[in-house]
Amino acid sequence: MRGLYVMTEAECCDLLQLATVGRAGVTTAQGPYVVPVNYALIGDSIYFRVQPTTVLGKHVDGAVMAFEVDRIMPGERTGWSVLVRGTGRVVRDQAEAELVDSVGGPEPWNRKPDRTLYAMEWTELSGRRMWEQTL
């Protein structure tokens, strides 16, 4: 028997706190663009760093965005998925940037210079948990 459970916002936040890599998505003139990023969750904001010259970096500021984190175990046919929607922005406030750094992240895998800190403040948070139960 398969099951689908719609998670509460608190359950979604708990899972967002556990993960460190998610997929950030924006719309470009060529269509949707989604890439994996390391992130940190502080309050109702997801923070990540990318170079401002990348496709993501060029489109985040002021954009309606989606951010997705999941853990799927195909062999067990179980997993969860959290979807966050909100508005992206460049973090320009030094105190806010220092706060983000003080909690340890996000640290990009590629350590090229000129990483800009971005935030996505969510307006919608939803999640689902899937499972399969054998009788």
Number of E-state strands:
8
Distance between the termini: 7 Å
Q: For the record, what is the CATH homologous superfamily label?
A: Electron Transport, Fmn-binding Protein, Chain A
**Percentage of residues in DSSP E strands:** over 45%
CATH domain class name = Mainly Beta
* SS content category: alpha+beta
**CATH-derived topology:** Pnp Oxidase, Chain A
Overall structural domain count? 1
- At CATH level 2, the architecture is Roll
Rg over C-alpha atoms, rounded to the nearest angstrom: 16 Å
What is the string of helix and strand elements? EHEEEEHEEHE
How many distinct helices?
A: 3
Helix content: 10-25%
Give the uncertain stretches in residue-range form: none
Cα shape: globular
Mean pLDDT metric? 90
Largest sheet: 8 strands, antiparallel
3D structure, described in words:
With 135 residues, the protein is an alpha+beta fold. The chain has a single domain (2-132), classed as Electron Transport, Fmn-binding Protein, Chain A (Pnp Oxidase, Chain A), CATH 2.30.110. It is 18% helix and 52% strand. It has 3 helices and 8 strands, in the order E-H-E-E-E-E-H-E-E-H-E. It has helices spanning 9-18, 55-59, 94-102; strands at residues 2-6, 21-28, 31-38, 40-42, 45-50, 64-73, 78-90, 116-132. Strands 1, 2, 3, 4, 5, 6, 7 and 8 form an 8-stranded antiparallel β-sheet that branches. A hairpin with a 2-residue loop joins strand 4 (40-42) and strand 5 (45-50). It is globular.
